[in-house]
Amino acid sequence: MDIVELLNQVNANVVMTIFAVTYVIVGTLKVTPYFNKNQYLPIVALFVGMICGAIWGGYSPSTGLLVGVADGILAGGFASAGGHELISSISELIGRGK
Fold first, then answer.
1. Which of 10, 22, 35, 95 is the most buried (most CB within 10 A)?
2. Which of 74, 94, 82 is CA-nearest to residue 15?
3. Mean pLDDT for each 10-residue chunk of the chain (98 residues)?
4. CB atoms < 10 A from the CB of 50, how many?
5. What pLDDT, in 10s, does the model give residues 54-78?
6. 67 CB contacts (<8 Å, ≥6 apart)?
7. pTM higher than 0.90, yes or no?
8. How many Å apart are CA 64 and CA 9, to the nearest integer?
9. How many other C-beta atoms can be found within 10 angstroms of the C-beta atom of residue 49?
10. Cα angle at 15 between 76 and 39, to 5 degrees?
11. C-alpha distance from residue 93 to each of 13, 54, 67 (Å)
12. How many CB atoms lie within 10 A of CB 2?
């Protein structure tokens, strides 16, 4: 399997589900005293995404373990890089409208 076939198998719904789970887990870890340093949260988000993707790929017959891990890396990277900023910006815009 080459990289093009792997990217063709990536399912957007799976990535968004893994993103939501990763975002909630990392957000919960962020308030604990062990992970309150922001410098480690992107790495934690990637590993949480990889684990969630591996679990999803292991239980889903349509996606394999490798595709699940790739989905998890994609979702974890999105959660760590831009997801929090996007959600913060949207909630700020909604708050200004009141």
1. 22
2. 74
3. 62 78 84 74 84 85 78 77 70 70
4. 20
5. 888 888 777 778 888 888 888 887 7
6. 6, 9, 10, 57
7. no
8. 10
9. 29
10. 10
11. 26, 35, 36
12. 6
